[in-house]
Amino acid sequence: MALAKMSVAELEQFLRDEFPQAFSGDDIMIESADGQTCLLRQRYSERMLRPGGTVSGPTLMALADFAMYVVLLSAIGPIGLAVTTNLNINFLRKGQPGQDVLAEARLLKLGKRLAVGEVNLLSGTSPDPIAHVTSTYSIPNV
């Protein structure tokens, strides 16, 4: 297992300082991050729902992208200009209203300029993913 370059506390502080529009610390929590994987929890809010009472696609895509950013930062350190170059999402089942959404992210390959990972999104305590995401990030020269 890779050694984390940033702890959960360091990630939270960095994100509050550098990316407050996405991480204000009240609706998304970083439960773990170890340089290879991370687990994020987005607390349920009615703002997550689309007509028909399911968790919206934009909510799921944003959480998955944010989870990839967190796992990448935990692996490479505070390089804020790492950016998404590709994100592919497969919606598998309905996300249930009233349930937190969990994002389990994992790096598949970490290179000098690109990182590839996957995210499973889960609704509440169900073990069955509601979406599966693959993503690539570009890592700037520092």
TrEMBL record:
<keyword id="KW-0472">Membrane</keyword>
<dbReference type="InterPro" id="IPR006683">
    <property type="entry name" value="Thioestr_dom"/>
</dbReference>
<keyword id="KW-0378">Hydrolase</keyword>
<protein>
    <submittedName>
        <fullName>PaaI family thioesterase</fullName>
    </submittedName>
</protein>
<keyword id="KW-1133">Transmembrane helix</keyword>
<dbReference type="GO" id="GO:0061522">
    <property type="term" value="F:1,4-dihydroxy-2-naphthoyl-CoA thioesterase activity"/>
</dbReference>
<keyword id="KW-0812">Transmembrane</keyword>
<feature type="domain" description="Thioesterase">
    <location>
        <begin position="52"/>
        <end position="124"/>
    </location>
</feature>
<dbReference type="GO" id="GO:0005829">
    <property type="term" value="C:cytosol"/>
</dbReference>
<feature type="transmembrane region" description="Helical">
    <location>
        <begin position="66"/>
        <end position="89"/>
    </location>
</feature>
<dbReference type="InterPro" id="IPR029069">
    <property type="entry name" value="HotDog_dom_sf"/>
</dbReference>
<dbReference type="Pfam" id="PF03061">
    <property type="entry name" value="4HBT"/>
</dbReference>
<dbReference type="InterPro" id="IPR003736">
    <property type="entry name" value="PAAI_dom"/>
</dbReference>
